[in-house]
């Protein structure tokens, strides 16, 4: 869609350029024509002027439908076309006014003296040249002013675009910083998760070992259900002689205290002479 609009604008611009050249030639022909041919050429030039006016309006409408990035290029072309068109219109209008003045002067010259007619024509020629110079100067000044205005508009648009891009860069920088913070936070969370995983693995290993030990005990007990003793190493057994001596000392001490109290009760545990110790 955008390409079609650009192609249409290019076609109208080419047509407008050719029509302006043709209109310029017609204006030159009006200037160079004699009194007899000038009215016909003037009418033809006026017809071209009306047609050009419509084409310029169509070109302006077409520019309005273009994408924003394509408009400046065609806007500059439209401004140049309008300047050329105004200059040619002004020249044609001036030529028509000069022709009317010449006709009036010629009529007045026929009614007066020959010397006066010749002097009026000389004055009219000077006025015409002065008007042409003044018109050209005014046109140049207007074109210069338009160029300055266009440059100012382009500078303003460029500054606005730069401000917009600066703001966009600022937003991008903020997003990048936020992403960096999120990545750092994610790294910390991953490190914590890994430590927890290692801790869980150690706990699971201990649980596995305890489970295996319990299972081993259960299996051993199921294999040997009648065993009620365990083989104890010799280093862990008590010395029976020493145990007898210690028991005898305790028994003698208890019997002595009872005798001092006058208690003739039997020895503890119903045994006389001490504890009964199995060898």
TrEMBL record:
<keyword id="KW-0653">Protein transport</keyword>
<feature type="compositionally biased region" description="Basic and acidic residues">
    <location>
        <begin position="117"/>
        <end position="127"/>
    </location>
</feature>
<dbReference type="GO" id="GO:0012507">
    <property type="term" value="C:ER to Golgi transport vesicle membrane"/>
</dbReference>
<protein>
    <recommendedName>
        <fullName>t-SNARE coiled-coil homology domain-containing protein</fullName>
    </recommendedName>
</protein>
<dbReference type="Pfam" id="PF12352">
    <property type="entry name" value="V-SNARE_C"/>
</dbReference>
<dbReference type="GO" id="GO:0005484">
    <property type="term" value="F:SNAP receptor activity"/>
</dbReference>
<keyword id="KW-0812">Transmembrane</keyword>
<keyword id="KW-1133">Transmembrane helix</keyword>
<dbReference type="GO" id="GO:0005789">
    <property type="term" value="C:endoplasmic reticulum membrane"/>
</dbReference>
<dbReference type="GO" id="GO:0031201">
    <property type="term" value="C:SNARE complex"/>
</dbReference>
<keyword id="KW-0175">Coiled coil</keyword>
<keyword id="KW-0813">Transport</keyword>
<keyword id="KW-0472">Membrane</keyword>
<dbReference type="InterPro" id="IPR044766">
    <property type="entry name" value="NPSN/SNAP25-like_N_SNARE"/>
</dbReference>
<feature type="transmembrane region" description="Helical">
    <location>
        <begin position="202"/>
        <end position="223"/>
    </location>
</feature>
<dbReference type="GO" id="GO:0006906">
    <property type="term" value="P:vesicle fusion"/>
</dbReference>
<feature type="coiled-coil region">
    <location>
        <begin position="13"/>
        <end position="62"/>
    </location>
</feature>
<dbReference type="GO" id="GO:0005794">
    <property type="term" value="C:Golgi apparatus"/>
</dbReference>
<dbReference type="GO" id="GO:0031902">
    <property type="term" value="C:late endosome membrane"/>
</dbReference>
<dbReference type="GO" id="GO:0015031">
    <property type="term" value="P:protein transport"/>
</dbReference>
<dbReference type="GO" id="GO:0000149">
    <property type="term" value="F:SNARE binding"/>
</dbReference>
<feature type="region of interest" description="Disordered">
    <location>
        <begin position="105"/>
        <end position="137"/>
    </location>
</feature>
<feature type="domain" description="T-SNARE coiled-coil homology">
    <location>
        <begin position="131"/>
        <end position="193"/>
    </location>
</feature>
<dbReference type="InterPro" id="IPR000727">
    <property type="entry name" value="T_SNARE_dom"/>
</dbReference>
């Amino acid at each position: 869609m955008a390409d079609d609009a650009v192609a249409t604008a290019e076609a109208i611009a080419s047509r407008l350029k050719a029509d302006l050249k043709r209109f310029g030639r017609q204006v030159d022909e009006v200037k160079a024509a004699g009194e007899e041919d000038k009215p016909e050429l003037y009418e033809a030039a006026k017809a071209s002027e009306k047609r050009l006016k419509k084409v310029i309006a169509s070109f302006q409408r077409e520019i309005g439908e273009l994408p924003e990035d394509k408009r400046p290029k065609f806007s500059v072309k439209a401004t140049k076309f309008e300047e050329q068109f105004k200059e040619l219109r002004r020249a044609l209008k001036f030529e028509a006014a000069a022709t009317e003045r010449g006709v009036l002067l010629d009529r007045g010259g026929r009614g007066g003296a020959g010397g006066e007619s010749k002097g009026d024509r000389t004055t009219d020629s000077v006025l015409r040249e002065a008007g042409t110079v003044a018109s050209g100067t005014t046109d140049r000044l207007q074109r210069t002013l338009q160029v300055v205005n266009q440059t100012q508009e382009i500078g303003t648009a460029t500054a606005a675009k730069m401000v917009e891009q600066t703001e966009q860069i600022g937003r991008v920088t903020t997003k990048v910083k936020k992403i960096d913070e999120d990545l750092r936070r994610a790294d910390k969370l991953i490190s914590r998760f890994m430590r927890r995983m290692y801790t869980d693995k150690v706990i699971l290993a201990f649980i596995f070992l305890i489970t295996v030990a319990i299972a081993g005990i259960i299996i051993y007990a199921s294999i040997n259900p009648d065993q009620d003793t365990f083989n104890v190493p010799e280093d862990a057994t008590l010395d029976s002689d020493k145990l007898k001596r210690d028991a005898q000392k305790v028994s003698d001490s208890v019997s002595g205290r009872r005798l001092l109290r006058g208690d003739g009760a039997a020895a503890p545990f119903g045994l006389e002479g001490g504890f009964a110790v199995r060898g």
